């Protein structure tokens, strides 16, 4: 299998425009700076945000489809907007972890237009430390016992919970009864 990642680039999303929904998933048109140019990518990936650093397969690069066939990315109309590439997901990049159809993001330390990493970047500090050694001793334990509430505190919490549920039911019932009165 050829190394397809050589043509992929790290880009940053400059702007996002919601496209009118015409059935299926909602589409978004994104202006993306890939270092040497600004391109438009149309996507349905919900995790794309302004200023996200995302791996992009620009026109001329290749991706593998679901059947393992190599497909060249071409400039094409998607949702009535010309798309000049596509966002890569972890699966396309050969990374472990990450869902299919979720745009692969990288930290700001990756320069625009650079190649994506060979492995999925892990955030420093994940799990409460810098990634080296055991977690700090001052972190609360996962299985520590919770503070016990007094009878009065439990009763007050139960009353508050009942009041919230009652208000929620009343809010749901109010529009339904209002619609019935309008129909008369």
Q: What topology does this entry show?
A:
Elements: E1 9-18, E2 28-33, E3 38-43, E4 53-58, E5 62-64, E6 70-72, E7 76-78, E8 81-83, E9 85-87, H1 90-93, H2 151-182
Antiparallel strand pairs: 1-2, 1-4, 2-3, 4-9, 5-6, 7-8
Q: Within the largest sheet, what's the order of strands? A: 3-2-1-4-9
Per the principal axes of the C-alpha atoms, what is the gross shape? elongated
Hey, roughly how much beta strand do the residues contain?
15-25%
Q: Write down the secondary-structure element order.
A: EEEEEEEEEHH
Radius of gyration: 25 Å
What is the correct CATH architecture of the domain at 1-121? Beta Barrel
Helix content: 10-25%
The number of helices is 2
Mean pLDDT: 80
Domain TRNA-binding: 2-117
Region (Disordered): 110-184
InterPro entries: NA-bd_OB-fold (IPR012340), tRNA-bd_dom (IPR002547)
Pfam families: tRNA_bind
Structure description:
- This protein is an alpha+beta fold.
- It has a domain at 1-121: OB fold (Dihydrolipoamide Acetyltransferase, E2P) (Beta Barrel).
- The chain contains 2 helices and 9 strands; from the N terminus they run E-E-E-E-E-E-E-E-E-H-H.
- The strands form 3 sheets. A 5-stranded antiparallel sheet has the order 3-2-1-4-9, with no helix packed on it. A two-stranded antiparallel ribbon has the order 5-6.
- A hairpin with a 2-residue loop joins strand 7 (76-78) and strand 8 (81-83).
- The radius of gyration is 25 Å and the shape is elongated.
- The model is unreliable at 127-133 (pLDDT under 50).
């Amino acid at each position: 299998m050829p190394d397809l990642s050589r043509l992929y680039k790290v880009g940053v999303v400059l702007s996002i425009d919601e496209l009118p929904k015409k059935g299926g998933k909602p589409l978004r048109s994104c202006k993306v700076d890939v270092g040497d140019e600004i391109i438009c990518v149309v996507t349905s990936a919900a995790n794309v945000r302004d200023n996200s650093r995302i791996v992009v397969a620009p026109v001329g690069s290749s991706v593998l489809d679901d059947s393992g066939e190599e497909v060249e990315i071409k400039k094409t109309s998607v949702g009535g907007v010309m798309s000049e590439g596509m966002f890569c997901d972890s699966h396309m990049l050969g990374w472990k972890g990450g869902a299919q159809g979720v745009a692969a993001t990288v930290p700001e330390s990756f320069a625009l237009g650079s190649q994506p990493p060979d492995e999925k970047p892990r955030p420093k500090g994940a799990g409460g430390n810098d990634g080296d050694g055991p977690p700090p001793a001052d972190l609360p334990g996962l299985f520590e016992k919770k503070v016990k509430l007094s009878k009065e505190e439990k009763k007050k919490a139960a009353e508050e919970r009942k009041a919230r549920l009652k208000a929620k039911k009343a809010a749901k019932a109010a529009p339904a009864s209002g619609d019935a009165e309008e129909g008369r």
